[in-house]
Amino acid sequence: MASQAKRQWPYWEIALVVAIFGAGAWSSTLSPYYLSIDQLFGSTRAFIIPGLLALGLAIVVSLGEIDISLASIVAVGTVALAKFSAAGAPLALAAPVVVLIGALCGTLNGLLVAKWRLPSLAVTLGAMGAYRGLAFIVGSEVGYTDFGDSYSWLGSEYLLGGVVPASLVLFAIAAIAVWFLMHRTVYGRRCFSIGLNRDAAWFAGVDVVSQKVIAYALAGAFAGLAAIVWIGQYGSARGDNADGSILFVVTAVVLGGVDINGGRGTISGVVLALFLLGTIRNGMGLANIGGPTQTVVLGGLLVAGVLRPVAVSAAARLTHPAKLKAAGAQGDDIGGQ
Amino acid sequence: MSGAPSLAQRAPSRNLVQFALRLREAGVVAFLVLLGLTFGLMNERFLTIQNLTIVASSAAILAIAACAQAVVLITRNLDVSVGSMMGLVAYLTADWAANHPAITPLEVALIALAIGAALGGVNGLLVAYGKAPALVATLGTMSLYRGFTYIYAHGQEVTSSRVPRWMLTSVDARIAGVPALVIVAIVVVAAVAWFLYAFPLGRRIYAVGSNPLAAWFFGLRAERVTLFAYMLCGVLSGVAGLLYAARVGTVTVVLASGWELSSLAAAVIGGVSVSGGSGTVVGAALGAVVLATIDNGLVLLHVAEFWRMFIQGAAIVAAVAVDALIAEAIRRAAGGRTGR
After folding, report:
1. What domains can you pick out in chain A, each with its CATH number?
2. Contact: B143, A295; criterion CB under 8 Å
3. What is the ipTM of this complex?
4. Which label site among A139, A147, A208, B213 has the fewest CB atoms less than 10 Å from its CB?
5. Distances (CA, A) of A310 to A298, A313, A315, A316
6. Considering only CB atoms, which chain B residues are within 8 Å of A293?
7. Interface test with B, best of A295, A308, A317 (most B CBs within 10 A)
8. What is the pLDDT of residues B270-303, one digit of tens each?
9. In terms of CA atoms, which chain A residue is nearest residue B79?
């Protein structure tokens, strides 16, 4: 099973790269401005926030769990930043505290899921409402827009001669860090081993509970980081910030080839999927394709993404009919979570 | 000799499981009574017939949607496209009725049910035969169905003046003082509950969800059962969407967006396990009543709207925690025989 999967992954990432270039080529035919450096780098800003959330979610999903409360944690972070800004606190104090608040929200999810073994989908569904409510309670309905320059620097500044957004640099650093964590450290290997077979990992001496709590805490911390970027991009903190963006995040993680049941996936795949989704969105925006059609295209991509394993095994069945039959009966689980 | 003790051991554990499940629904009812009394003490307007009727009618449609979600949850799957299915069915049906003024109620209902079954069928095919994880597949169709609604609508909406008059009046009708909407909801939930309880196919839905491997060894075709559960979910979402359309009159493209989460919340609060195999649609409907009661009570107490979100979220977490405690107690009492 594992070796079969291993052989598939590079193909998927190559397919994503080809799709990105295809989408880019298509976009360049739509608008003469598409292929300008400013436009290309500027357009990446649209997916920095979901991108940071996707990096955190990928860690959680590799364990076979899920966290749909991340967008709500972003809102908690933005209203917390608003409070700090109103109190006149410097960003050097506010930023670490907000990341910590995010990590705390994540840790609470993680404890509920790992320590008390509650189903992660239901728990984070509840947490999604609770954190969103908390953001409204703290921030009230009225948006706060009175941020100082230092607060909006990360999300609005361009580096290297005003071309590369500072948030893109942040995202690149975060992506490399998560890639290193998941593919080059013991922690990452253990995450995948828990996702593949929780009980086997436990018998092998892996501390499943703390692994999961750390994963949730990291995802929450990334949401806190995304909140800081949010302030720079939109300049406004309100309880409904980032509402509904979790769907895009889950789409990116799944399209990136991370198995939603855990155990398999790569961070490079997630990053490529983000670029693909960003390119398609950007291109459709240039082509004046409306939001609804974009939604249909994203939904179609997601469905195509999940049908990939079936297509692969169907193709394999045509070439080796006997070998797959035994494996197919075992892999017959219909578990969703 | 070895068979006898194990049988003896198993019998009480099964009773215990049934007892605990009954306890779970009784728990929801007890919570509901407690909630009602609290709100009643804090505001005298809460426990009036008039207000309770309002609570019941606002819970009615959510109860059907929660019932739809519950059927799929019991098979150990999930459907986050419930809200989008409701929206698409509502729009297509209302639009069809608006363009064919002479249409009969039966035809409208049949159209809504057929579209619902088709949409649910697509979900079912993806999950059961496409082997796609339920969350991801229905997340995809959630965007697809909502997107189709937007594209079909072309930025328009079906105004209440265009839909047939009877559609709007029938949901507001009262039979012996009880809103028709509530009666429809009770009939639908009771019918589905009876179906799941008394019919072989209904029992198979539980079997597939509670132990897929055992169901497979038993010879059940899990794919067919799952496909059927999704189609039933689609049909029920269609009913809920149609009722919603009739209730609000003017059908917009965003109708029922976010209901996938409310339906899930209601089902989970009502004791339907997201790990499949346990819970009832009656529980899910009760969960919808709990949510409607919280909503109504907080409005009467002039609590800001966002506290509602916080309390709802906390209630979901509390409900799953209670379920886990019950499951743990069953496991312990059964000597580790049940559970995973």
Report:
1. 2-330 (1.10.3470)
2. yes
3. 0.78
4. B213
5. 20, 5, 8, 10
6. 147, 151
7. A295
8. 989 888 888 899 999 999 999 999 888 888 888 8
9. A336
